[in-house]
Amino acid sequence: MEPNDKVPERNYRDAVHNIIRINTSTPDGALAAELIDTPEFQRLRRIRQLGLAFFAYQSAEHSRFTHSLGAFHIATRLLDRLGAKYKIADEDRIAVRIAALLHDIGHGPFSHVMESILGFHHEDFTIAAISNPASKIAGVLTDFSPDLAPAIVDIISGNFHCKSLGQLVSSQLDADRMDYLLRDSIMTGVKYGIYDLEWIIRSLEIDEEGDRLFVSSRGLYAVEDYLQARYYMFRQVYFHRTLRAAECVLRSLIQRAIDLVRNGEQVFRAEDTALDSVIAGRPLTFAEHFSLDDSDVLFHIKQWRKSSDPILADLSARFIERRLFKILDLDMPEESRPEFIENARRAVLDAGFDADYYFAEDTAADEPYFFYSSREAAPRDHIFVESGFSSPSLREISQISPAVRGLQKGHRIHRVSFPEEARDAILAHYRH
Fold this sequence. Notes:
Blueprint: E1 9-14, E2 18-23, H1 27-36, H2 39-42, H3 64-83, H4 90-102, H5 112-118, H6 122-131, H7 136-144, H8 148-157, H9 163-166, H10 175-188, H11 197-203, E3 204-207, E4 212-215, H12 220-238, H13 241-262, H14 274-280, H15 286-289, H16 294-304, H17 310-320, E5 326-329, H18 337-350, H19 355-358, E6 360-364, E7 384-387, E8 393-396, H20 397-400, H21 402-405, E9 413-418, H22 423-431
Antiparallel strand pairs: 1-2, 3-4, 5-9, 6-9, 7-8
């Protein structure tokens, strides 16, 4: 970021969009700048966008902060494009831009992985940050307009009064996904997430009668490319075996620390911190959640390497030193899997490990969040494309695109994770 008090503009140098400009001489530009400067938003600098992907892709160190600015930038460009053709109320435009900026504000350490460990959804904390009086963000929004925070909550929840504009932030073709695909592709060094953003921006339209977004006929191939990019990014990056192995170790060591405290054992935890509440099994308060970031978790894991408990010490050392579990895809008939899993678990026990912490199944279904599927997604999340020449109509994209139909089956994974020391015994069962 290059602030200059003499110029009413902020410039953020960005790996994806080159320069993200915020005109602070306008009310909504000044609002965006003030929100970026809040403690809750600055915390996103300390939350990795891709969680533990840096274990697999060493350059994937980018943050939720950079992604949120990127989503804000794309939403602004989409609104500029649509506003040149359709009437968009000023208050709706501001609400959509700020919703794109704040959409990820509630993420916890290492992004999605900690949600499964601690049993919360980041969207709940996002809504709390926008509406809780204890939040600096909520105060800034309320000072700007008492109607703004409720409108942003409606956008993020999918209940905005103008559904087509709400889809710019929350849909299958939104500013969030448009930014993270390009950003994650660039920062991991892979090419799977590259698609034609410029042509999609040029091709988006509003069906005013149906109050929904659609893609003009000229944008069909660009959206096909976007959906295929999403599909392959999940298969090759987000479901990467090393990334998932790191997540398995992290879950196990956090659970071990929780179990030890529950059983009255001593576990290092910095007093009066959010991690203290996590390990004690207490639900995080608003203030605790927004004080917690990646560095807090890493600090405790480094300390736990010296734990008197051999399991916690070993798991923590494995995580810090990148001695991760091995991952095995269950490439076998489904009816054979239960027996194999039982034999593999027994092999881990025979190797001298507690299978509750050193053995895990790993599954990820083809949820609509991951892959576009007209069968799985709610009708409001369908992507519609203009079709026909003499009397064009709007059709769901998989009805006219063989490429998108081919993605409908999605991709499921079913794996087991275990220490290297049990590998040979487990593979023996696998081959038989």
